[in-house]
Specification:
The complex is a heterodimer of chains A (about 475) and B (about 425).
Chain A: H1 4-13, E1 26-28, H2 35-44, H3 49-64, E2 87-89, H4 103-111, H5 116-121, E3 125-131, E4 134-138, H6 141-146, E5 150-153, H7 154-160, H8 162-168, H9 179-187, E6 190-196, E7 205-211, E8 221-227, E9 232-240, E10 248-250, E11 253-258, E12 263-271, E13 283-293, E14 298-305, E15 310-313, E16 316-319, E17 325-334, E18 339-342, E19 345-348, E20 354-364, E21 368-377, E22 385-395, E23 400-409, E24 415-424, H10 427-435, H11 440-456, H12 461-475
Parallel strand pairs in A: 3-7, 6-8, 7-9, 8-11, 9-12, 10-13, 11-13, 12-14, 13-15, 13-16, 14-17, 15-18, 16-19, 17-20, 18-21, 19-21, 20-22, 21-23, 22-24
Antiparallel strand pairs in A: 1-2, 3-4, 5-6
Chain B: H1 3-14, H2 27-42, H3 59-62, E1 85-90, E2 93-94, E3 107-111, H4 112-118, H5 122-125, H6 136-144, E4 149-153, E5 163-169, E6 175-176, E7 179-184, E8 189-198, E9 204-214, E10 219-227, E11 232-242, E12 247-256, E13 259-268, E14 274-283, E15 288-297, E16 303-312, E17 317-326, E18 334-343, E19 349-358, E20 364-372, H7 376-384, H8 389-405, H9 411-425
The chains are: A alpha/beta (about 475), B alpha/beta (about 425).
Chain lengths: ~475, ~425
Amino acid sequence: MASEEELLEEVTSQEYKYGFYTDIESDKAPKGLNEDIIRFISAKKNEPEWMLEYRLNALKVWQEMKEPEWAHLRYPKPDFQDLHYYSAPKKKKELESLDEVDPELLETFEKLGISLDEQKRLTGVAVDAVIDSVSVKTTFTEKLAELGIIFCSFSEAVQKHPELVKKYLGTVVPSTDNFYAALNSAVFTDGSFCYIPKGVRCPMELSTYFRINEANTGQFERTLVIADEGSYVSYLEGCTAPMRDENQLHAAVVELVALDDAEIKYSTIQNWYPGSKEGKGGIYNFVTKRGLCMDNSKISWTQVETGSAVTWKYPGCVLKGENSVGEFYSVAVTANYQQADTGSKMLHLGKNSKSTIISKGISAGKAENSYRGLVKINKNAVNSRNFTQCDSLLMGNDCGAHTFPYIEVDNKSSKVEHEATTSKIGEDQIFYCKQRGMDEETAINLIVNGYCKEVLNQLPMEFAVEAQKLLEISLEGSVG
Amino acid sequence: MNETAAIQTKQDFLAHFKNLDFSFDADFSKEKRDFAKEQLQKLNFPTSKTEYWKYTRINKLIKGNYKTDFPTAEIDFELSVPSKNCLVLVNGYFSKELSWSEQTDGVHFSSLSEAKEKGGAIAKKFGSLSKDETEIFSSINTAYHQDGAFLHLEKGAQASEPFYILHLVDSEGAVSNPRNLIMMEEGSSAKVVMKTLSTKKGASFTNMLSEIFVDRGANLSVDKVQNEGEQDYQIACEQVEQKADSVFKINTFTLGGKLVRNNLNIDLLGQHTETWLNGLYLLQNKQHVDNHTHVFHREPNCESHELYKGIMNDKSTGVFNGKVYVHREAQKTNAYQSNANMVLTDEASINSKPELEIYADDVQCSHGSTTGQLDEEALFYLRSRGMSQESARAVLLNAFAADVLEHIGVDAVKEDVESFIDKHYQGVK
């Protein structure tokens, strides 16, 4: 692994600095969604015929579908014909120095204790920064290439590794899966692609930063991670978005494939603009994330959700292989007018498959936080095991915390456990902390961090610190 | 099913009731019937896409060919009712010959039609809890109920003898809408046993609805036993309203029936109430049981405890969907919900959906759901002490059911259920 200095040298000598810049001229498609737009996107990206066909089929499916309304969420429905479905920086306009980066953004990074240059210096992290759907920067690719690891933008993968994309795209999340998955399949512009060859243990944490940059643009990323037999990869996804006054739609699809004996660890920190204190604006986050586990493989999802005005997200695992393992660790914080309907789906198909779900919800202000999960044990999934725990913490009397678990067991040898609790922060705990000289806010941060520890411990080191700070920022001022 | 077909199915089903004559009915009841009939124009039967009916298919139930006439055949039942109060309904009609009761001051126990004729408080209460605007089976019951049981305890009345309400399903193909009304006035207390039994000769459908009012400081305990044949369908709905300081307990035992659906809705309207909901479902063959409970905490300082347990054998399927709703005003609520299931074969299945919807912060709410099977180690232990495989299993299954059984208010019911378990689970493989 390169030394810190070498890395610093390498990164700083490059002219382009991540492009977190709001004035980049965008190459926008006209508003609306129809076949022509799909053809436009596909042509822009110079895609092969099969890709275009995939998109057009998805569009057909999408047009037949209705927007789901079963979630415990209330929001004005987006007008899908009033959005731009393609927006790419026309020229990769390059920045002279960090000074040109959005100061507000830098401030947020500063608050998180993870300024951009610090981020760059972090050894062992390859950063693939995505601005408005088009991947503009990839580092460490060469180093990874030595091991045969492919880590690139999705469009690059379509061009360079069509056989892999063709083989796995839509196998875990078919375009018929749900309304937003269909929409994404039709219009996705870019995302990340990762392939770990047989028996390779990826030596560094792979990471991408997503950002929604252009007002009025829905962002539709597509992520595909394939861990071939016996391989291991840890993938980090972190998100920030600058202030926007209009609701922005985000409908991503993430597909993970863990072949026999492989392991994928997928961590997310989601910190998009949650809207103002009055509940104005904010991101709509409708994401479909799913992993497919073959024999003896393992997929682990860890997420810290603090952002977005509306979150609709159920990362899940299809435990198809024998002895496969699925895990889900989540902290979801909603404050002010934020709403989250999130949880996990564990589908047990293979023998001796195991899954664990740990979900911690924190609700403050006028927020609504729901856990919605499905654990299904198929008839053939003998000796399967699931353990689910979802706890909710309420702060204040105007918020809500809800639990909607679905448990379906179809054989006699499996064990499923589910437990949930809802309560508020203990007044005696706060009293104890205050008595030791802490102010109330610090006390609550301490208690909340302790409450989430189980999940935060699952995060890679790089994220753990950031996540803790994020929790604090998210709950700032929501305690009264 | 497309819309026209759905409407056709509904009309075909409602046609079963077209010959029923309700001209004798009291005016307030007729009004409710007319209102319910109006609602039926709009309402449709739930489908697999209806969230609250997701796991229960009622196609066969609603497409059945039923009769509504009173049976002429001799009633062939051995009824052992260890109480001085017993009211018997046969296919939804009151049977005077089979019923008996003692006269007690402040206690009125009669058929619903008799109570309607007498009038009084019933005129206000009848139909006030039934959700005829939204629930199709409720509006069918309101529109076409033949008769049912009526129990009214005046202020402070204490009844020590339990009240038995038996519903017998006799002739093949009977469809009935028994309708019960229980009014517990301030400070009164009573125990009720509700049983449904069938001659098990053929398919039938019982659509029962009970409205239960528990006033301030009153105490009511209900043991509900459903033991019908393997071709009998039943949908039973209890709408309960609890006022301040009252205690309400209901134990639901589902022992037989092809398809049994229980809707138990409890509305807590006063402070310091106590509510207990327990259930035990013991299923064999191809039985299907769907338990839906909804506890609505509207006021502060209330407590609810829910415990449902099930044993699924053969090809049976069980559903549990419990919901606890805590309103913004309902601070200091304690709500517990627990569902435990045992799946004994690979063909059996269970769908469990315990839900919490909470809008108040100073509450203690929790729920749990488990699904598993007999503990091999416990079995081994008992075997090593010289027990046969069968009796070891029976001991463990009895122990599993025990914490629901201990809530039963009437000893005779407890003995019934216990002997049912012994009989049916001795030979379990």
